[in-house]
Amino acid sequence: MFIVTSGKKFVDIDALACVYAYSMLLKLMEIRAIPVITAMPNQSVISRFRVQNLYTTQLPPDAISNDAQFVVMDVSDPAFFDSIVEIDKVTNVFDHHPGFEAFWKDRIGDGAVIEPIGAAATLIFEEYVKNDAVEKMDRLTAELLYLAIVSNTLNFGASVTSGRDKNACMKLKTLFSFTDDLAKEYFEEVDKVVYTNTSLALQNDTKIIPFGGGIVGIAQLELWNSMDLQNGKFEIIESFLSQLSADYAFLNLIEISKSRNTLVCANEQTAQWLVSFMGNLKRESATILRSSSLLLRKQILSSIYDKFGR
Ligand SMILES: [Mn+2]
């Protein structure tokens, strides 16, 4: 029996799509697989993917007696695995975050598929291709994988996007006759949720990260159209940032339809600090910075590590 799961703190649509789609693939191959997620879905998981029973939130009672093995999706640092995972029983890891490739290659060999592409969902689509199962994929699985790739690559605008991500989406789009509206409507629904409950969305996508020069708190929101948020939500954002336990804190607001980022800083020191080592940021005001291309948190973090060390 395989338990397919992901991370500990929250799951995004990429993690959820991988967990569900890979469980379905194993079932198609007549292998017993159960998708289990104990973490909360974040705002990238829109309501119609919450109401359906895409996964269970508890380890099945017979998991231990059946000698369950674990497949982990969209995360490879064991510190961030779902708390149900027994690390010695992990047989497969699919991820696109760097850092633990060698660790897993040594342990599970080909069971580790960790590659720097736009979405982990692309890796799972490729598993369907390898196993000749694309034609047997159902529409819900296809939609989840497609939207996960669109979401994680910021509609293909993020620089991490690879040809493999685009290829997977193109094939799914053709096979299931998806229209361009599918992605647009998805992003607009996420916008609405973020606007309705901005504090929760911020909480659900904030990372507090130690680095060579102190501690940085980075909140991230990915919005199709950020106008609504810019009109009237700045106070919520500023008070959220100011209560984070960090030396520097900012919100990385990704404005997908405008292909730019706005960085809302907790204070002027944070803005000055960011501008001092990130060449691609322009100052809009004392605490607002802007980039002219899409920037993901992991890219900003790489710049921080490059400048100040880990
Ligand atoms: Mn991902």
Describe this structure in words.
With 310 residues, the chain is an alpha/beta fold. The protein folds into 2 domains: 2-178, inorganic pyrophosphatase (n-terminal core) (Alpha-Beta Complex), CATH 3.90.1640.10; 198-308, Diaminopimelate Epimerase, Chain A, domain 1 (Roll), CATH 3.10.310. 40% of the residues lie in helices and 20% in strands. The chain has helices at residues 13-28, 48-51, 101-108, 120-130, 139-152, 163-176, 181-196, 198-203, 227-230, 234-242, 268-277, 297-308, and strands at residues 2-5, 10-11, 33-35, 40-41, 69-73, 90-95, 112-114, 206-211, 214-223, 248-255, 260-265, 281-283, 288-291. The protein has a 6-stranded mixed beta sheet, with helices on both faces. Helix 3 links the parallel strand 6 (90-95) and strand 7. Helix 4 crosses helix 6. The longest helix has 16 residues, at 13-28. The radius of gyration is 20 Å and the shape is globular. The two termini are 39 Å apart. The mean pLDDT is 93. The structure holds manganese (II) ion. Residues 14, 74, 96, 119-120, 152 line the site of manganese (II) ion.
Summarize the structure.
The chain has 310 residues and is of the alpha/beta class. It has helices at residues 13-28, 48-51, 101-108, 120-130, 139-152, 163-176, 181-196, 198-203, 227-230, 234-242, 268-277, 297-308, and strands at 2-5, 10-11, 33-35, 40-41, 69-73, 90-95, 112-114, 206-211, 214-223, 248-255, 260-265, 281-283, 288-291.
